[in-house]
Amino acid sequence: MSFLRTFAGWIGKPGLVRSAEAYAPAELVSRQLCATRDRTFSGNGVDKAAVLEKVTAYDEYVGVQLEVMIAFGLRRKEAVMLAPRLAEVPAHALPASAGDTPYLAFLRIKRGTKGGRLRFTAIRNEDQRVALAKAKALARHHGHIGRPGLTLKQALRRFSDVLRAVGVTRRELGVTPHSLRHDFAADLYLDIANVEPPIRGGSIDAHTMNAAYLEVARQLGHGRPGISGAYLGTRKKPRESDDDDDPS
To answer: Running DSSP on this structure, what letter comes out for residue 7?
Structure first.
């Protein structure tokens, strides 16, 4: 409706177009910034390993693309364009803007990101190392893990077709490939905060929660910690005992 409001201003009638709430119920026009239900594979009873096995049997390339999505919270395009032999970065080689980190190595992600935003996602467990090793074995030299001979557009379509063929749709399983970013966010939050995220009933002091939200946002490629709420749920008001223990 914003373009109609702009047009009304051009013709000298700025009040002609009212707010969206004047034309539809508020719940239909308000944007939900925090998750109100668990959108992860695990939260919907979907076995990631079983799905990965089916996808890999159907198409080896898509299987590896899916595995790095699971391991590193990549978007579909980021996974298809990943050049694994060029992506691994030791912590000491990170830019100063990355700050201090407890992790030893990271995946440098830039190809296929929204707006070309560079991010570094920590390599923090064995599943990630296995996924990265498979990707390196599949890629040609310093190339990407998209199927050879396909354009980017064709490779993206192939990925979607294969996932749809094995039933990974909201209608059939209640999840989509993008839901894996929710799984990644929840697992990373648990690693950092040592408690489940709010969407799964977890509660922790505000300082720890905010720090975890910021790190999750960074590793997902977002600039604001508040966006983590779309994956992890509402940041609940901390318990009174947490405030009492705050040295500040």
So the answer is: H
Lookup: tokens for 4: 């109609």
pLDDT digits (tens, 9 = 90+) for 1-42: 555 666 666 677 677 777 655 655 544 443 446 767 899 999
Question: Both tokens of residue 79?
Answer: 């996974």
Q: Name the maximum alpha-carbon separation found in the chain.
A: 63
Q: Where are the beta strands (DSSP E) in 82-201?
A: 88-90, 105-109, 119-122
Beta bridge partners of 108: 120
Strands, E assignment, 5-158: 88-90, 105-109, 119-122
| Partner residues linked to 90 by β-bridges | 105
For 164-194, write each residue's pLDDT tens digit: 999 999 999 999 999 999 999 999 999 999 9
Q: 29: how many CB neighbours lie within 10 A of its CB? A: 13
CA distances from 186 to 101, 117, 180, 218 (A): 19, 22, 10, 14
Please check whether residue 174 is in contact with residue 46, taking contact to mean a CB–CB distance below 8 angstroms: yes
Cβ(134)–Cβ(56) below 8 Å: no
- φ/ψ (deg, to 5) at 59: -160, 115
Sole residue written with tokens 């914003």: 2
In what order do the strands lie in the sheet containing 119-122? Answer: 88-90, 105-109, 119-122
Take residue 240 and report the two structure tokens written for it: 């009174």
